[in-house]
Design brief:
By secondary structure, this protein is of the alpha/beta class. The protein is about 40% helix and about 10% strand. Strands 1-12-11-10-9-8-6-2 form an 8-stranded parallel beta sheet. It has a 6-stranded parallel beta sheet with strand order 13-18-19-20-21-22. Strands 3-4 form a two-stranded antiparallel sheet. Helix 1 packs antiparallel against helix 2 (about 35-55), helix 18 (about 475-485) packs antiparallel against helix 19 (about 490-510) and helix 23 (about 605-625) runs parallel beside helix 24 (about 650-665). The radius of gyration is 27 Å and the shape is globular. Bound molecules: glutamine (GLN) and zinc ion. Glutamine binds near residues 468, 521 and 588. It is an enzyme of class 2 (transferase). This is 5-methyltetrahydropteroyltriglutamate--homocysteine methyltransferase.
């Protein structure tokens, strides 16, 4: 039997110590030279290539390194640089709308002309596109950023114009491929395919369809493929992840002619799909004129045999068998079983790889010093996943090497220990879960009755004012939290410092005249971490960083076991805050869906079950808050929308369990207790019925950017409960004028009953300073007063 080929779809670029983050930020501040930044990049690439080669992979990826984002790199490569970010436009000073006369640093937006490709791309061009500015030079508005499929990674959205042309304009991917080959590596460059590239971008002019740019785009891809062949690549991995989405017919039909055009004598193409099943696009994908197809066998194991049956006999099938999206160790025995049959049928046409790029997992588990050894034995980060790919290949050999057998043994051991561990399985939690009844997720009465009882108690004015929860996290607050964590501040001292911050926030809110107060969340570093640290079943890593965007990384907690709440989590702070004021102070919790999606989740039970466990833990907290005299409790669910599955047919099922989990957490209280929820990243039109089904008494929403659209959804649905459409954007330090907020609310009052409206900013204020916060809230309170006078 021939050896099976192993490869990787991409490696995390940020570095085990977040070296790239540090270097980038230093460069942007002007503290690091371009040469030193480039040096850091080179060192990281070399290290990662070497590590993957040492592990024994047949092919290692190039083109996966990026200074900010791989989609951005591709835009530059294709010469697709918005006019406002081009060096040419800057150097000539000819940019229309330039502020050169006044010298102010307001963003400048040059009108976008139909453009030819940009010919002068360098590192700073990338940073202007990504951040609106390079270390030096004028500011312009950055490209939009959005989520990469259903991950927490954000890419820079390509901008498209009707008569645009493309041309190979930036050679980073090619140069890095040469660089790796010169170091003696066997490489396979990775690029995003033309249809996914167009799909993920946005039209910047009316009345045109970006798919019409395909003709213009393909020659640039052809140039790029030729250049990669020229650099020495034999195979190129071309990613078309949109093949796992529901595609309009025109897009689906575009694949076949596109890949005919890209057939290239010099390089073979491996067409990569991931994050789900090919579904309706399966026949399209298997028939494309490419040399190989990669599929995700972790998210969609059910498609494996179907694909094998329909794959033409000359094609390679790369099976993504190691989970690139999660941190669990692979069950090598089960994986070997799945693959053995395929290996027999496909012979050397079978390749092995992780399911998707390893960009979405941390770099190296070995770095972790503080994890429980048992828990640690269940995990695998990027480097360990590469080892797993190689071990599987060896295990498929007729006589596996001793090291492979040892890996199998260790994997068996880990599977057993995880299946049986008391850390994972908590009988009390499971008992409680099986005792849940339908009434547990229902409030005692309908909204109309609850609302009357709440109002009788709370006596709030029309257009009540409130904030979303967090107040500025001052240096003092951060320093106290850090010192406490490091053991330099005693429990008592820490509590005093936090109490001071709470008292300060309460005084300021009373002076501002807000109607419903918050304690300010000073004790929280992060809205998920704070609760995860207090719940059983959650673990935290020291170095488990994953790139979110650019230099920004997140360190998601790991949900590994049944979730339970050993003791109350927020009541002491809430009670203290409430003791300082006669006005109601909201209790503040993070909801079950957000607790789930902003973590690495269990793969040994459905997410719906984990969500329900978290919901029960929160339900106890909600009740404890009520018993502590808290009359209003907010359960934040900013992640509800981002949890939506990639295919529409799966939405209903997800929304059912997600809504149920929220309701389970919220419904244990009396009618008199008012439940709020908060959501950001609005775009609710298509899930408005699910939002209404949450049955929160009040929902506050981020709307400052698309007020009209959002209210449309609520109006058309005749949304029944109270709403606080955010009246100003907290992402900007600008102080919103009173009249602007009055106007927004008056528009809202034309579409929704004014008795149902609240006045609030659009999200938490933790990233702001106090000066602008107080000024903005003073205006907001004035706006509410004016509304009351006029109504
Ligand atoms: N209560 C949180 C805060 O104010 C909500 C944050 C969020 O919506 N992302 O910070
Ligand atoms: Zn928010």
């Amino acid at each position: 039997m021939h050896p099976i080929l192993t490869h990787n779809l991409g490696f995390p670029r940020i570095g085990a110590d977040r070296e790239l983050k540090r270097a980038l930020e230093a460069y942007w501040r002007g503290d690091l030279s371009k040469e030193a930044l480039e040096d850091t990049g080179r060192t990281l690439r070399r290290r990662h290539w070497q590590q993957q080669a040492d592990a024994g992979l047949s092919w290692i990826p190039t083109g996966d390194f990026a200074w900010y984002d791989q989609v951005l790199t591709l835009s530059a490569t294709l010469g697709n640089v918005p006019v406002r970010h081009r060096a040419e436009a800057r150097n000539t000073g000819a940019e229309p709308g330039s502020h050169s006369e006044c010298g102010c640093s307001e963003p400048i937006d040059a009108p976008e002309a139909p453009e030819g490709p940009c010919r002068q791309v360098d590192l700073d061009t990338l940073f202007r596109m990504a951040r609106g500015r390079a270390p030096t030079g004028a500011a312009s508005s950055a490209c939009e950023m959005t989520k990469w499929f259903d991950t927490n990674y954000h890419y820079l959205v390509p901008e498209f114009h009707p008569d645009q042309t493309f041309e190979l304009s930036y050679r980073q991917i090619i140069d890095e491929t040469r660089e790796a080959i010169a170091l003696g590596h066997q490489v396979k460059p990775v690029i995003l395919g033309p249809l996914s590239y167009l799909w993920l971008g946005k039209e910047k002019a009316d009345n045109f369809d970006r798919l019409s740019l395909l003709e213009a785009l393909l020659p640039a891809y052809q140039q790029l493929l030729d250049a990669l062949a020229d650099a020495g690549a034999k195979w190129v991995q071309i990613d078309e992840p949109i093949l796992v989405l529901d595609l309009p017919a025109a897009w689906q039909q575009a694949f076949e002619p596109t890949y005919h055009r890209l057939q290239n004598r010099a390089v073979k193409l491996l067409l990569a799909t991931y994050f789900g099943a090919l579904g309706e696009n399966l026949s399209t994908a298997v028939q494309l004129p490419v040399a190989g197809l990669h599929i995700d066998a972790v998210r969609a194991p059910e498609q494996l045999l179907n694909v094998v049956d329909r794959l033409p006999v000359h094609k390679v099938l790369s099976v993504g068998i190691i989970d690139g999206r999660n941190i669990w160790r692979t069950d090598l025995r089960a994986a070997r079983e799945t693959l053995a049959e395929l290996a027999e049928r496909l012979g050397e046409r079978l390749w092995l790889a992780p399911s998707c790029s390893l960009l979405h997992v941390p770099v190296d588990l070995k770095r972790e010093q503080a994890l429980e050894p048992e828990l640690k034995s269940w995990l695998a980060f990027a480097l360990q996943k590469v080892d797993e790919v190689v071990a599987l290949e060896q295990l498929l050999a007729p006589e596996p090497a001793p090291s492979a057998l040892a890996a199998l043994e260790a994997s068996d051991q880990s599977v057993r220990s995880r299946r049986e561990s008391r850390r994972v399985h908590n009988p009390a939690v499971q008992e409680r879960l099986s005792a849940i009844s339908p009434t547990d997720s229902q409030r005692q009465s309908r909204f109309a009755q609850r609302s009357a009882k709440q109002q009788a108690l709370l006596q709030l004015p029309e257009f009540p004012t409130t904030t979303i929860g967090s107040f500025p996290q001052t240096d003092d607050i951060r320093q106290a939290r850090r010192a406490y964590k490091q053991g330099q501040l005693s429990e008592v001292e820490y509590r005093n410092r936090m109490r001071q911050a709470i008292a300060d926030a309460i005084v300021r809110q009373e002076q501002l005249g807000l109607d419903v107060l918050v304690h300010g969340e000073a004790e929280r570093n992060d809205m998920v971490e704070y609760f995860g640290e207090q719940l059983d079943g959650y673990a935290f890593t020291q170095f488990g960083w994953v790139q979110s965007y650019g230099s920004r990384c997140v360190k998601p907690p790991i949900i590994y076991g049944d979730v339970a709440r050993p003791r109350a989590m927020t009541t002491q702070w809430a009670r203290y805050a409430q003791s300082l004021s006669r006005r109601p102070v909201k209790g503040m919790l993070t909801g079950p869906i957000t607790m789930l999606f902003w973590s690495f989740v269990r793969n040994d039970q459905p997410r719906s079950v984990t969500a329900r466990q978290i919901a029960l833990a929160l339900r106890d907290e909600v009740k404890d808050l009520e018993t502590s005299g808290i009359q209003i409790i907010q359960i934040d669910e900013p992640a509800l929308r981002e949890g939506l599955p990639l295919k529409r047919k799966d939405w209903g099922e997800y929304l059912d369990w997600a809504v149920e989990a929220f309701r389970l957490s919220a419904s244990g209280v009396n009618d008199e207790t008012q439940i709020h929820t908060h959501m950001c990243y609005s775009e609710f039109n298509d899930i408005i019925d699910a939002i209404a089904a949450l049955d929160a008494d009040v929902i506050t929403i981020e709307t400052s950017r698309s007020q009209g659209e959002l209210l449309d959804a609520f109006e058309q649905f005749s949304y029944p409960n109270d709403i606080g459409p955010g009246v100003y954007d907290i992402h900007s330090p600008n102080v919103p004028p009173v009249e602007a907020m009055v106007t927004l609310m008056e528009q809202a009052a034309q579409r929704l009953p004014k008795e149902r409206l609240w006045v609030n900013p659009d999200c938490g204020l933790k990233t702001r300073g106090w000066v602008e916060t107080e000024a903005a809230l003073a205006n907001m309170v004035s706006a509410a007063r004016r509304l009351r006078e006029r109504s």
